[in-house]
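Lab notebook, bench 4. Continuing the backlog of folding jobs that were queued last week. Each job is logged with the same field layout so the records can be merged later without manual cleanup. Today's entry covers PucR family transcriptional regulator, a 429-residue chain. Filled in by technician R.K.

JOB TYPE: sequence-to-structure
TARGET: PucR family transcriptional regulator
LENGTH: 429
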Amino acid sequence: MTVHKPRAVLRTDRAGGDWSAPSFGGAELHRTLMAALPELTARVTERLTGEVEIYRKLPAEELAGDVRKIMEWTICAFAAALRTGLLPEGAELDRIRSSAAKRAEEGVPVDAVVTAYHVGALACLDAVASAAGPGDLADALAVNRLLVGFLGRVTSAVTGGYTEEYRALLGEGTADRQSLLSALLEGSWDEESAVHAGIRPPACYLVLSLAIDAHPDERAPGVSTGVAARRKVRRLRTELERRSAEPVLSRISSSEGLALVPLAGQGAGRADWDRTADLVRALGSAAGASVTAGAAVCAPSGVPDAARLATELRDLAVASRRPPGLYRLPDLLLEHQLTRPGPALDHLVELLGPAHANPDLLPTLRVHLETDLNRRRTAARLDVHPNTVDYRLRRFTALTGLDIARNHDRMVARAALAALDTAPARFRG
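JOB STATUS: finished
OUTPUT FIELD FOLLOWS
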């Protein structure tokens, strides 16, 4: 027979033991808190940044978003406890557990997270204490007793959610997946290791190599770069998992990443590539930063070569100043072939040597090629007079012998720029 424990109730001895919402100066405290909710939430957030150092370094986006929302929810929960005498329990505390888990993943110390709720509790007391009079002693004692119980529940939820997430980050499942990813990248995987990691080996992997720009918060003065970067990585991982029906093997830092996304078939069709392009755009939106991805498809045994190709494509897209997004080999076929190591690559780079010393010539050449040799559009993009464009191009021709008005020289110039982008260390101009 199951015995159900009654829900915890804190009561004073007033009114024959029945709970009566406490009041100061005749005003019920839960109504006072709710009436001042926006102002009080802002005050709590301000006190946090003043009294808890790590919160002072959090990104403004986080303070105005996650932190403000959980503080507002907690004030509402305490107001409800004041109204009913009932402490939150079970699923009612899931919001606090979830928030604490996010702070764990971002590396915010658990003691700072617990302290934040105590700072909020003091702010609530300060908001109502001035109205208390000599006749409110019994209500003041009831409020203090209720607050101690409330903070006990909150502290338990914070430490539970934080610890669970921290263990998950370091747990066996994560370690097994990382071991499997390493084995696949080394070409030494077997089905037994995949089963041990709780993953059914797919027929095919989509290999994504990611270049991730910095989030604005990572460059903001006074903001903890580490916290901002971990928030970005957490959002990326969450979006990656959300969009895949099967577990994704990934290794992601604040600036780059590698992900093996399972595919159902033996290869990727047009619909798969369309979904992948959408995925890369969604990753950028989730991260709040530009994401450029090189992609290749392979069987599990082909992961080492596919990962190398995907990374080459990613680096080539970034170096050649392509816009963020997805890049497959067909998208960069010519550039990829032109930048393979060898004497021809060295020679292409050396062709631009004489022009490299002039800081205006190569940027002008790039833009002019991108605008299909339209001098007015080139001038507009560079914010110079069209005659200046003509002068720079004549100077480029005089220094290199390449006249981009000629088809052959134009092809050579494009190839030389591609070679220079991907092999700057080879430049000997």
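OBSERVATION: The chain has three domains: 14-170, 204-332, 339-426.
SIGNED: R.K.
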